[in-house]
Write the structure tokens for this entry.
Amino acid sequence: MLVASVAVSCAADDRPGATADQSGTTVTATASGQTVRGTGYSFRLPTGWRDVTTEAKQNITQKLDLVATGPPVGGATPNVVVTVDPSRGLALADHLAAARKEQAEVFQDARHLGRPRPLSLAGTPALVHEYTYTLNGRPARGRQVACLREGRVLFLTFTVDQQTFATNLAALQQMLSSWSWG
């Protein structure tokens, strides 16, 4: 699904310097950015990015697992949204097909760029696809990574202003390369 839902774990983290905000997301400061922990995963945010999960949950009625934003570029703020939902026994390709269909319904001008392609997310098979659409009157581009793990489907959606996509892509790559499970 475009935005899936799951209750966020509120488990405490015992690492030095780690704190848990009200959303249950654990944040650990590091030299190159902060490490954020969601439901069964963690990854490092690039320098200048921040976890805004608590604020996002106050403004969005759908359940979110993790939301982070980067520094504004060209008047737009790049963001990453992670959702986790039970897989209900569906194949990954079926989940991604449903997400693509929902994107076409929600964003009337959504245009999918090519076919989904395989990716490994910390050793777990995943699919990635890209699309464009209009967000708040501006051309936007999204890259969505989907994977199945331990009976759940996880979607990581990276959204930026279309003109700054290439500039912001390094930030997404840093998040994906620092991804770990557990």
